[in-house]
Automatic annotation (TrEMBL):
Cited InterPro entries: DUF805 (IPR008523)
Keyword DNA-binding: no
The keyword Transmembrane helix is annotated on this UniProt entry: yes
Pfam families referenced in this protein's UniProt entry, alphabetically: DUF805
Keyword annotations: Membrane, Transmembrane, Transmembrane helix
Transmembrane segments: 45-69, 100-124, 136-158
The name this protein goes by in its record: DUF805 domain-containing protein
Native organism: Brachybacterium kimchii
Length: 182
């Protein structure tokens, strides 16, 4: 049963929040899933980045644990193979180890998270650029290897600019309605 989002809540997603936390920032990032209009404050952007980083910790830990378990298993099996007199090339491989399942599961989780968060992350980055007074087209800097993401990182640290207010969606709608005489 889908309930419509109240206008009050929808309007709150359009404006930057200057005091935020990781949970609120992540919910706003997901709530503005593909909204490239409006603005996002520095705190909203960085809290969301921290939340995304924390989401990736578990799958990466699964991969590391799987790698350690798999390596220890291969080493133990290799010693058993040498003791049995078999040639080294017939020994166990990492693909045979029980740790491989953890690595595969961790990689699958990372891929799913990347797919699920790519559009919300780009829209949040676009809104952050607008809050700093830049055009959202600066997102194209991501296509320049090394230098482009570094420039965008510097832009993300810049404070909110008064010029960014021109990207506020409700403000534009209100100005249009006043000009039309509604």
């Amino acid at each position: 049963m889908n309930r419509p989002v109240p206008k009050r809540v929808a309007a709150q997603l359009d404006r930057p929040v200057h005091v935020s936390g990781p949970i609120r920032a992540l919910s706003r990032m997901v709530g503005n899933f593909a909204t490239f209009s409006g603005r996002a404050s520095r705190s909203e952007f960085w809290w969301a980045q921290l939340a995304v980083l924390l989401l990736f910790v578990i799958p990466v830990l699964l991969c590391v644990i799987g790698g350690v378990v798999g390596s220890a298993w291969v080493e133990q099996k290799a010693k058993e193979t040498e003791a049995g007199g078999e040639p080294a090339f017939m020994g166990p491989t990492f693909g045979d180890s029980p740790g491989m399942a953890l690595v595969v599961f961790g990689v699958m989780l990372v891929v799913m998270l990347v797919i699920a968060l790519i559009v919300p992350s780009l829209s949040l980055q676009c809104r952050r650029l607008r809050d700093a007074g830049f055009s959202g087209l600066f997102l194209l800097l991501n296509l320049i290897p090394y230098l482009g993401p570094l420039v965008l990182l510097v832009f993300a640290f810049l404070p909110s600019a008064p010029e960014g207010a021109r990207y506020d969606v409700p403000q534009r709608r209100a100005a249009t309605q006043v000009a039309a005489g509604s």
